[in-house]
């Protein structure tokens, strides 16, 4: 039996809570230490998730032996905290978006490769059974050519202009927070677009509250994408092919159900029940990579993160979103 992999967490917010909860369902992972800017918060987090160590600053995390660190701080701090880990020789799983812009992501990847330390962006959607089934169906060819992909992600956010969602200094805005999911799905299914159109509605703080996107591809496929903090949307993804369609049911980025509709046939439903939020699948990928001595994932390599942040930057440019 292989030994447990000791996780450290930087940041003790909502996403860290979900990850720590799901870590308990993995075979090899255990939460060993957590760090926050508040010692009391870290101690409370550690108590609820059975971590042995809690620290009131991020540097102290490296006073104990952790095998890998999950960076779960707000977007603008991902570069700083990932480099902190890498420069301490500690593997990293960093929350999405990897960085605020392409230059940050490239700096993280360059450092990881120079230090020969494992690094992966926490694009957890990539590892879900629903995503794997969708790719399997498309690759089987039963849909024929993919004509268009529609995906949306929206919820009515609390208009707290000092909170993370609406705060420019904290990397707020719909695109980076939730628009990354429909954008990543389009990149995964259709590749990099040849033309990008995007338009945003801005909140009074200057962040994008709603962003709509139209991507066009050299093979004449399209992707119609939307993200918003202004209202609750269906949060579904539909992939239309010449011979049928796939529906990734709400919420598509964490879906437990995929339906295949082929012309003149009864729909086929694929269910993927789980008792977790879904973060355990990416944790398992990290465990497999570390146990195999890999420096990056073959399923979601660092090159995929580079393509994603490049597409995010170009979309922000088209929509005139600035930080």
From TrEMBL:
Q: SUPFAM superfamilies this protein is in?
A: Glyceraldehyde-3-phosphate dehydrogenase-like, C-terminal domain (SSF55347), NAD(P)-binding Rossmann-fold domains (SSF51735)
Q: Which residues are in the Gfo/Idh/MocA-like oxidoreductase N-terminal domain?
A: 5-121
Q: Which UniProt keywords apply?
A: Oxidoreductase
Q: By its UniProt entry, which InterPro entries does this protein fall under?
A: Gfo/Idh/MocA-like_OxRdtase_N, Gfo/Idh/MocA_domain, GFO_IDH_MocA-like_dom, NAD(P)-bd_dom_sf
Report the domain of life of the source organism: Bacteria
Question: Which Gene3D superfamilies does the entry mention?
Answer: Dihydrodipicolinate Reductase, domain 2, NAD(P)-binding Rossmann-like Domain
Residue ranges annotated for the GFO/IDH/MocA-like oxidoreductase domain, each copy included: 135-246
What's this protein's family per the entry? Answer: Belongs to the Gfo/Idh/MocA family.
Record-given protein name: Gfo/Idh/MocA family protein
Origin organism of this chain?
Answer: Lacihabitans lacunae
